Amino acid sequence: MKIALTSPFEERVPPVKYGGTELVVYNITEELIQLGHDVKLIASGDSQTSAKLIPIFQRSLRSNPKFNDLKLRDSFKFMGIGKVCEYLSKNKFDIIHNHIGWRLLPFQKLLPAPVVTTLHGPLDVPYQQEVYGEYKNSYFISISHNQRKPMPDLNFIANVYNGIDVDKFNYSEETEDYFVFLGRMSPEKGPVQAIKIAKMTGKKLIMAAKVDSVDEEFYKKEVEPLIDNEQIRFIGEIDHEEKNNLLGKAKCLLAPIQWEEPFGLYFVEAMACGTPVITMRRGSAPEIIKDKETGFICDSIEEAAERTKLIDSISRKKCRQHVEAEFSRQVMTERYLDAYQKAIQLHKDSMPVYM
């Protein structure tokens, strides 16, 4: 099958440090190549892939300091969409897999192949809802069933959970006496709540997270004053090897999310290392984490603090097995291939028949 995958321009594929969507795109791309498909990856020029790379910009936008100007960054995203459409319109594919989101939807009928769009973000953003509503009959793929709730009338042709390369995560039975917080220093990720849980329990918390420009004020005002670099340590953004070591030795991942998390790749990465997850009953968490088997799903931070006392009752082996069965890149890609075939057939069925 001839397949084009489009990736956001914010980060390279795979991301050097933080970047969930770009990592998912990388895993799909590499697995499709291993299965023998002809794949073109449309992404930033610093991306690394076994596929044929179609560079949109020389470097990822986030790697260039001038794109700290969010208006300039947004302008370049639209310029990038133009380059994507120019390339796709001149080349033949069986399927185009869109990971850029709503920005590509207005142009999909100009493209010579069916487009499937994986929705990586929440569907409760009003201006995005307007766009998705205009193109509700497009072929959409959710990354959790909970993600669909704000816009259940979109034409969802599949639900495909994100997958990781499980072999790249070291399983560990041996742990050290600390909790870990991973991801972004954003209000919705719950860094303040994670610190409160650590303080309630007296446990050490190591926080490894990205501070994006939009979150700098929140971090400075709400999070930084709580970091003492003794019980509560912040080590910044980390790469894969550092993440592997940090997760593998942790007692648990503290993820007291304050929003409807569409997926949560870090849930899966932690469990792949054998590390259970303590999180809130929100978003995709109940779909990804087996309560009392691979972690604890809680209704308050007080409950989360109590559950930390039971963390050694969770089988680290079961955490790993759960990821291998449901969230590997092989399982994810098989499900995407089924979705591709469905979209291709639906596209054929919708074409006018001339007698």
Radius of gyration: 21 Å
The CATH architecture classification of the largest domain is 3-Layer(aba) Sandwich
For the record, the count of structural domains works out to: 2
Major beta-sheet overview:
7 strands, parallel
Q: What is the name of the CATH topology of the largest domain?
A: Rossmann fold
User: What is the total tally of β strands?
Assistant: 13
Quaternary structure annotation: single chain
Order of helices and strands: EHEEHEEHEEEHEHEHEHEHEHHH
Instruction: Compute the average pLDDT.
Output: 95
In whole angstroms, the N-to-C terminal distance is: 29 Å
Class based on secondary structure composition and strand pairing: alpha/beta
Task: Assign a percent range to the helix content.
Answer: 25-40%
Q: Strand order across the biggest sheet?
A: 3-2-1-4-5-6-7
Q: Flag low-confidence runs.
A: none
Give the strand content.
Answer: 15-25%
- The CATH homologous superfamily of the largest domain: Glycogen Phosphorylase B
What does this structure look like?
The protein has 355 residues and is an alpha/beta fold. Helices cover 35% and strands 17% of the residues. The protein is built from 11 helices and 13 strands. The strands form 2 sheets. Strands 3-2-1-4-5-6-7 form a 7-stranded parallel β-sheet, sandwiched between helices. Strands 10-9-8-11-12-13 form a 6-stranded parallel β-sheet, sandwiched between helices. α1 (20-34) crosses α11 (329-350), α4 crosses α9 and α7 (265-272) crosses α10 (316-326). The two termini are 29 Å apart. 46% of the residues are buried. The model has no long low-confidence stretch (mean pLDDT 95).
